[in-house]
């Protein structure tokens, strides 16, 4: 049945009410656990003094978030402010040379922060992949790129390359791996696009402009070369009506989200609690399930803010960067599960869609997914958590196709055709509930720990059965129906219902 299947309004109001109450209920349990265990010994290293006047301590367990808004803040704001300033001057005086200005400023910024030996290392990788791209053999470019990427994940290559960065400053390791990893992915995109070019080759200068664009250099997102090349060389510098207002609003929204997360960390220790397995065993089912859900939502918020700030700067440069990642709340299909749209688009274009075709053939889909997650493992590093996460997500993606194939066969196809669209939507939502929690469990395994994921699964499906299981699944069902209604309305905006238009 189509995505435009509608449900009665009173039913949707009921789902929204149940969902809102459940969120408040779960949050109250987490708040209670946080407040009653604030002085716990295992919390001392991560729960530190925060708002003195309110007597609240702050969860500082997420080192990445803390670095972004303490150590990183001054450096990043300074570097990006300089980029915006020089880009604005260039766009006013010589807009046709703006891509060259981005290259010069990016090179100088990387050189200043990491040293000339690091710049030399990056340039060597660019030259290597550029040389391979001249052969115009796709598989050779991909294999060379992946082998180069693997050198940052295994010894002795890692130790040898990291010695190129002198000094022992706090950001050294993070900037090193970020800059090198994204550089290889960008170089592979350039090489693969160059293979697809029928006449001639792109110049190495275009690769350097693409790679050393500072907002994307250390932390992404990845924009494929074909899109970057068109947008950065576009002569039209005019903006749409209200575009600057939208960009300003996005900047203000990111600031508001940062403040909201800061408030959250003072009242709910959602990052620290999952690290204390002993405490988790004595925590209620509702608090445990809520922790699993809120951890994933927080991880999305963190990624959305990081990419959002960078994307705001790139929009000022008249670029259209990849959108922020999809929130875990709206993910109930494995095919839509991705936290980084840039990497997702890269993988889909060069691996998944290239090998999978129309994604209707079971064997082609299996090969495409295996290769896609193989590249992801090389990108993230082949640790046990990454391998387990990749295996389950790969299985989930293929299982969806197998199920879709089965449902399209008799007698299921005839059975569904006899149902109303609303009934079909309700039945599909029931199956989506199990999909949703599979996605949650697989991802908390990757983001938190195997012990936390096992404990949540045990409470949800074994110890908590039947009360916790039924209640949580029903609340999840309500969530999925609310998501489906949002998707339905969005679909009607882009493709209005002809029957409704005729009636009007």
TrEMBL record:
It holds the Pfam family MBOAT. It is a multi-pass membrane protein. The lineage of its organism: Eukaryota, Metazoa, Chordata, Craniata, Vertebrata. This is Hedgehog acyltransferase like, b. It comes from the Eukaryota. The keyword Repressor does not apply. Its main location: endoplasmic reticulum. It comes from Tetraodon nigroviridis. One of its GO terms (molecular function) is acyltransferase activity. It is found in: Endoplasmic reticulum membrane. Coiled coil: none annotated.
């Amino acid at each position: 049945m189509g995505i435009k299947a509608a449900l009665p309004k009173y039913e949707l109001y009921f789902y929204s009410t149940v969902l809102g109450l459940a969120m408040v209920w779960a949050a109250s349990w987490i708040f209670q656990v946080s407040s009653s265990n604030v002085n716990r010994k295992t919390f001392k290293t991560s729960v530190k003094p925060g708002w003195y006047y309110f007597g609240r301590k702050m969860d500082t367990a997420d080192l990445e978030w803390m670095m972004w808004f303490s150590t990183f803040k001054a450096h990043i704001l300074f570097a990006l402010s300089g980029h915006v300033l020089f880009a604005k001057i260039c766009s006013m005086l010589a807009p046709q040379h703006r891509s060259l200005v981005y290259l010069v400023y990016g090179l100088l910024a990387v050189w200043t922060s990491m040293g000339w030996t690091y710049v030399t290392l990056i340039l060597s990788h660019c030259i290597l992949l550029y040389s391979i791209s001249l052969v115009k053999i796709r598989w050779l470019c991909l294999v060379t790129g992946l082998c180069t990427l693997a050198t940052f994940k295994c010894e002795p290559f890692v130790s040898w390359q990291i010695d190129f960065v002198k000094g022992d400053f706090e950001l050294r390791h993070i900037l090193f791996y970020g800059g090198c990893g994204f550089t290889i992915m960008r170089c592979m995109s350039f090489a693969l696009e160059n293979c697809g070019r029928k006449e001639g080759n792109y110049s190495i200068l275009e690769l350097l402009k693409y790679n050393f664009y500072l907002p994307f250099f250390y932390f992404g997102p990845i924009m494929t070369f074909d899109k970057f090349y068109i947008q950065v060389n576009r002569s039209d510098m005019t903006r749409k009506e209200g575009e600057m207002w939208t960009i300003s609003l996005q900047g203000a929204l990111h600031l508001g989200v940062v403040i909201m997360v800061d408030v959250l960390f003072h009242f709910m220790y959602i990052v620290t609690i999952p690290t204390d397995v002993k405490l988790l065993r004595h925590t209620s089912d509702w608090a445990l399930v809520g922790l699993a859900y809120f951890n994933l939502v927080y991880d999305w918020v963190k990624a959305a803010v990081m990419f959002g700030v960078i994307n705001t700067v790139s929009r000022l440069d008249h670029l259209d960067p990849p959108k922020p990642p999809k929130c875990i709340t709206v993910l109930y299909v494995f095919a839509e599960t991705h936290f980084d749209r840039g990497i997702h688009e890269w993988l889909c274009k060069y691996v998944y869609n290239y090998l999978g075709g129309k994604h209707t053939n079971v064997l082609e889909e299996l090969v495409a997914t295996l290769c896609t997650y193989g590249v992801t493992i090389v990108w993230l590093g082949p640790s046990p958590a990454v391998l387990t996460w990749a295996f389950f997500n790969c299985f989930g993606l293929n299982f969806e196709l197998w199920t879709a194939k089965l449902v399209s066969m008799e007698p299921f196809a005839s059975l569904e055709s006899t149902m109303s669209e609303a009934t079909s939507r309700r039945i599909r939502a029931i199956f989506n509930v199990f999909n949703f929690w599979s996605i949650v469990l697989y991802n908390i395994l990757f983001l938190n720990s195997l012990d936390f994921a096992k404990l949540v699964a045990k409470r949800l499906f074994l110890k908590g059965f039947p009360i916790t299981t039924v209640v949580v699944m029903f609340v999840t069902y309500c969530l999925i129906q609310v998501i489906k209604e949002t998707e339905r309305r969005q679909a009607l905006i882009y493709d209005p219902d002809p029957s409704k238009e005729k009636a009007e």
